[in-house]
Specification:
By secondary structure, the chain is α/β, with parallel strands linked by helices. About 10% of the residues lie in helices and about 30% in strands. The longest helix is centred in the first third of the chain and has 14 residues.
Length: about 240
């Protein structure tokens, strides 16, 4: 499809969801920014919208559709748009694109910040109840999770409780492969590549421009066993 055709297709979707787009902009943004309709949301699902958003960028950069939530990008995931629940603060430093089948939840004390040119292809799960900060030019593959809270505190033997939350900080030009999970206390240096299915839970004491991942060592748990497709039924006995 030509570039013109793609644009016409996008504008057709914008018209379809125009009432929701207007509602979201005027619900989250100050009037002077909302009238420009910088946030486009596709197939929206709204939770509680008790917080607000900030466009921390020069006025001449605030244009219609510079922030796109739920746009159909990856066809192996459902075209379900984006669910947004914002009771805290979301800060956009520039263009931001989050693809289809994505979920964003910001708690009352949450502060979520996207740097310039943030892109997630599809199926982003983001739970920010304290602080998550992405640097500039961050690329996130499909089916990634970022969560800065445990949602439940643990009680120690002395009766005290764990904190249960902490910040997540991602540097500039970081690329996350698909299926990554990033939890509280994580700090990723600039220009790192995070391999697919990596789980991060702490500050990474590594140099910039590193490729990182978990050591998924292969081990043999048994030998001589296989699945006989002609006789693989399980017989259950009481």
């Amino acid at each position: 499809m030509s570039t013109i055709g793609l644009r016409l297709k996008t504008y057709a979707r914008v018209i379809r969801y125009f009432p929701s787009i207007v509602f979201l902009n005027f619900k989250l943004l100050p009037f002077s920014q909302a009238v420009k309709l910088p946030i486009w949301i596709f197939k929206p699902k709204f939770g509680k919208l008790l917080g607000g958003a900030i466009l921390d960028m020069p006025k001449d950069e605030i244009k219609p559709g510079i922030i796109r939530l739920g746009e159909f990008k990856v066809n192996i995931y459902p075209n379900t748009g984006c669910m947004i629940d914002c009771r805290g603060t979301i800060i956009f430093k520039g263009r931001c694109t989050i693809g289809n089948n994505s979920f964003i939840s910001v708690g009352e004390s949450g502060k979520l910040e996207f740097g310039k040119d943030f892109v997630c292809s599809s199926s982003l799960k983001l739970a920010c109840y304290f602080s998550i900060k992405f640097g500039h030019h961050v690329l996130v593959g499909w089916d990634c999770l970022f969560m800065d809270t445990d949602f439940h505190a643990l009680t120690r033997p002395d009766g005290s409780k764990t904190k249960g939350y902490d910040s997540i900080v991602v540097g500039d030009e970081v690329w996350f492969g698909c299926g990554c999970k990033v939890f509280k206390r994580t700090v990723v240096p600039n220009r790192c590549v995070v391999s697919a299915n990596t789980v991060l839970t702490s500050k990474l004491e590594i140099p910039e421009k590193s490729v990182i991942g978990n050591d998924n060592t292969i081990c043999v748990k048994a030998q001589g066993m296989y699945r006989n497709y002609k006789d693989d039924k399980i017989m259950y006995f009481g």
